[in-house]
Design a protein that fits this description.
about 170 residues; mainly beta; Immunoglobulin-like; six-stranded antiparallel β-sheet; three-stranded antiparallel β-sheet; flat; disordered N terminus
């Protein structure tokens, strides 16, 4: 699949790897051992394109165009022999796409946090400085068009044999 905008294209495989690289690398680094065993979290990424009121697997779409919505799902499965505590998963919002406000969903007791600086910092509501008419500067919520990543933080451990799912949507610019 390719993204088409002003004669630019991006192969879907590259797009998928951008997002999967973020989710997989972070998810496997952020766990602590709860018992003498070791958690082993396997992360999978699936993407669907919303077409004609249906979800089409991204690998079956030859091209996405501005306005298309992609639905990303990160599935984390603990195949180890101990719980992963403080488990987090990160989804990247590729350049040329905008996060769809309110679309971050996940299983269990989770907080969704957002980054506007490519994952260096996260908050529930990223803020930016905005210059006012009188010359003063005010902190205001960043528009979703500035979001670069979404991070899911579960309060409960990802126990041995359990799976968690998190999803979010992006719109092609």
């Amino acid at each position: 699949m390719k993204i088409k905008k002003h004669m630019r294209t991006l192969p879907v495989v590259a797009l998928s790897l951008l997002v999967l690289g973020s989710a997989g690398a972070f998810a496997q680094k952020r766990f602590m051992v709860l018992s003498t065993g070791r958690p082993e979290v396997k992360v999978q990424l699936a993407a669907f394109v919303e077409r004609d009121k249906a979800l089409v697997p991204v690998e079956k779409v030859s091209m996405v165009v501005p306005g298309d919505v992609l639905d990303w799902t990160i599935t984390s499965a603990n195949e180890g022999n101990a719980a992963a505590i403080d488990y987090k998963a990160v989804g990247h919002i590729p350049e040329g796409m905008t996060f769809v406000a309110g679309s971050a969903k996940a299983d269990g007791s989770v907080n969704a946090l957002y980054s506007i600086d490519k994952g260096k910092s996260f908050s529930t509501q990223p803020m930016i400085e905005e210059k006012q008419a009188d010359g003063s500067v005010k902190q205001v919520p960043a528009p979703v068009s500035m979001y670069t990543d979404v991070r899911y933080e579960w309060s409960d451990p990802l126990v041995q044999g359990a799976k968690l799912s998190a999803s979010y949507k992006v719109r092609v610019n």
